[in-house]
Amino acid sequence: MSSSTLTREQSAKAFDGHQYVYSHESSTVGCKMKFGVYVPEKAEKEQVPLLIFLSGLTCTEQNFITKSGVQSLASKYGFIVANPDTSPRGCKIEGDSEKWNFGESAGYYVDATESKWSKNYRMFSYINEEFYDLIVKNFNVNPKKIGILGHSMGGHGALISFFKRPGQYQSVSAFAPICNASASEWGINAYTNFFGQDETLWKQYDATELVASYNGPKPHAPVLVDQGSDDSFKDNQLFPERFIVACKTASFPLELREQAGYDHGYYFIMTFLEDHFKYHKNEFEHAQ
């Protein structure tokens, strides 16, 4: 491991492996970034699959690793699981910390084009280039078995990463993703700041829009998306039904499961997380 690029902030044994938190100076977003990574014992002996998990609004690198119980599953399935922060921090841009759904903890995994934000808010490039390469180079990852998943804003981030980088990820899944970001209140507010009034730029970071033009490798099994029926954001921010229609129109395979009685939180994620591990494992088994 390259000690010159990564600083270990936390380390704890969990099951047969270790949960770490590292920091590094990011050249992409221009500040120190933290991330969590669980490394199972199996990775000490051989290359193993990698899952990247993207978190939602208000989250840091801590939420997923402290609330989901992911460590037991990562150990059981022998996956490295890496989860970055959700935005740059400490950039001191006016307006970046006034609202819970925009700015710090809410970077939407996009590359901003407006000059105020474009230097630091480059989370799409950070996730899919710098962070991706950092994990692959510093940990014992099988480069042919890499999947991405996320929750809410992070589910949106996972889907757009899969669609915009065909072939980079062998698998993708999501929990309650923002499916149509350019048409949701959250997305409209963020995208107006990040991209200005040019709605063609908004649509370049919108899963419902992107699936129509996706021409990369299709998954072996339909992409797995779980959505709670009692999610208070479902009908006015997430718009899963629009994504279902878009996937059908594009003949893109999707299994969107509405889970009765579940809300938007981590108990929901915890309940169905193993199904997502099983899904990614199945996709990895078909990877060439």
TrEMBL record:
Keyword Hydrolase: yes
Keywords associated with the record: Cytoplasm, Hydrolase, Serine esterase
Signal peptide: none
Compartments reported by the entry: Cytoplasm
EC number, UniProt record: 3.1.2.12
Pfam families referenced in this protein's UniProt entry, alphabetically: Esterase (PF00756)
Gene Ontology annotations of biological process type: formaldehyde catabolic process
Free-text function comment from the UniProt entry: Serine hydrolase involved in the detoxification of formaldehyde.
Family assignment from sequence similarity: Belongs to the esterase D family.
Protein name: S-formylglutathione hydrolase
Organism: Rotaria magnacalcarata
